[in-house]
Design brief:
CATH architecture of the largest domain: 3-Layer(aba) Sandwich
Strand order of the largest sheet: 9-6-5-10-11-13-12
Structural class: alpha/beta
Bound molecules: S-adenosylmethionine
Number of helices: 15
């Protein structure tokens, strides 16, 4: 599989920062080899771990879908009339979808990997919130029904792009439509679109190669009975796109030569990526030389556990300045989000775009991981945090609760039993138990 030299020259080993060279179907630094998966460089620092991780996510998807299929099969047996027809259609579509996704992900399952040592095995795991089908609707929006939305997004971001885009990186590019549209309208010297989710990059890779394939959409709230499942023909691009490349990489673990790009775009990424924004900014800085541009687009709905990390736009600008970025232009607008013609509803999102110039260099964070150090290194002491203590109390109670189940107790009698033993309020406990068992149904 050959990659253009100019693209390979941008790539660096994400651990030691060494240059990579292409040897057959892998990229190699002194001690590490990075596979080309389906022809796309897989530049996660611990490539085997992340391949295994996404393999496990595929497996999980297959299990969940098989379960759905068997439940639908069961429901079909007692369904009548239009309900029968709808379930029958859904069942057939789910079976197709299982096959479509499995086929699309074939390059992942074909790549041979072996597990690393226990200490490293957990590094490079994608956050548990990022699954194979996270943001799946983006594929249909980008390549099927989202013409208006895609145009609005492109036109909004286009105004923030520098006149001379130079070498252009799009981090967390997803189904890549925005990256592609900007590649065509801004004529950068070269564009590299990255993501951690193989589903997107494999799908886009097929389209770029001019290959067509089927993919079934299941609208969240179908408007009509006919919209419970939409089998889309994803049409391969008719024209070859020059100087546009795909790369599996974690935006927070730069896999490129320091300052390799003149312009970096983070579309709908900064608030959903798992690291504290200050940490992410330090990593982002590594992509650009002083004078380079960072363009951001998307919502600011930081999804961090700690309130102090869920920043407002004012705080974002302040943190950017601390990381050496001067925000020079910024606008806010409202845009439709995932306005599918098949779904009963869609969101209007308050989105931001800005362009910042990198004014000074700032050192990268050496080891950014999603999991805490004491999980990565199983010899480290477990800190006794408030949340772990609360979980401990909950689990101790649950252990007692399940031990007490004998096939005779009712919720009421259990509540009285535990209230007597613990000196708590029986009525309140009964209410809690009802809520708990309700959730288990
Ligand atoms: C909200 S979606 C936005 C997709 C695309 N940028 C768009 O505007 O349609 C977020 C994307 O970021 C990707 N992503 C999440 N964490 C990432 C990371 N650490 N590095 C690179 N991509 C990441 C997800 O797989 C997903 O494609």
């Amino acid at each position: 599989m050959s990659l253009p030299t100019e693209f390979v020259e941008l790539l660096r080993c994400p651990v030691e920062g060494q240059a990579l060279s292409l040897n057959g179907d892998q990229l190699s630094a002194a001690s590490t080899h990075y596979p080309l998966v389906g022809g796309i460089p897989w530049l996660l620092p611990h490539p085997r771990n992340s391949l295994l991780d996404w393999g496990a996510k595929l497996n999980h998807f297959q299990q969940v879908l098989l379960q759905e299929v068997s439940e639908l099969d069961l429901q079909l047996q007692s369904a009548k009339g239009a309900v029968h027809d709808r379930i029958e259609c859904l069942l057939a579509a789910k079976r197709d979808f299982l096959l479509e996704i499995t086929t699309l992900l074939e390059p992942l399952t074909r790549t041979q990997v072996a597990a690393e040592g226990a200490y490293n095995a957990l590094r490079d795991r994608a956050p548990t919130t990022q699954n194979l089908l996270s943001y799946e609707s983006n594929i249909y929006r980008d390549w099927q029904w989202g013409e208006e939305e895609n145009r609005l997004c492109h036109d909004f971001v286009r105004d923030f792009m520098p006149e001379d885009v130079g070498r252009f990186a799009v981090l967390g590019a997803g189904a890549c439509r925005l990256a592609l549209d900007l590649h065509q309208s801004c004529a950068p010297e070269r564009t590299v679109a990255t993501d951690i989710n193989p589903l997107f990059l494999f799908a886009v890779n097929k389209l770029l190669r001019g290959e067509s394939f089927f993919l079934t959409e299941f609208p969240l709230h179908p408007k009509l009975i006919d919209y419970v499942a939409i089998k889309h023909q994803m049409a391969g691009l008719s024209e070859r796109l020059d100087n546009f490349h795909l790369c599996f990489a974690d935006a927070a673990k730069p896999a490129f030569a320091k300052g390799a790009f003149n312009t970096v775009l983070t579309p709908w990424l900064i608030d959903i990526q798992p690291h504290a924004f200050g940490v992410f900014l330090r990593q982002l800085s590594q992509y650009l030389p002083v004078g380079g541009h960072w363009v951001n687009f998307g919502s600011l709905v930081f999804n961090q556990r700690r309130e102090s990390l869920c920043y407002s736009v004012e705080e974002v600008v302040e943190l950017a300045a601390e990381a050496g970025f001067e925000v020079e232009m910024m606008t806010q607008t409202e845009l439709p989000y995932l306005k599918s013609p098949y779904s009963a509803g869609y969101r209007m999102e308050n989105v931001w775009a800005w362009r910042a110039t990198k004014r000074e260099d700032i050192a990268a964070v050496v080891d950014v991981e999603v999991l805490p150090e004491w999980v990565l290194d199983t010899h480290k002491p477990i800190p006794l945090s408030q949340s772990l203590q609360t979980l401990g109390v909950q689990h101790q109670f649950l252990a007692r609760l399940y031990a007490a189940l004998d096939g005779k107790h009712s919720i009421h009698s259990l509540a009285e039993h535990f209230a007597r033993a613990d000196g708590s309020d029986a009525a309140e406990l009964e209410h809690l138990l009802v809520t708990y068992f309700q959730r288990q149904q």
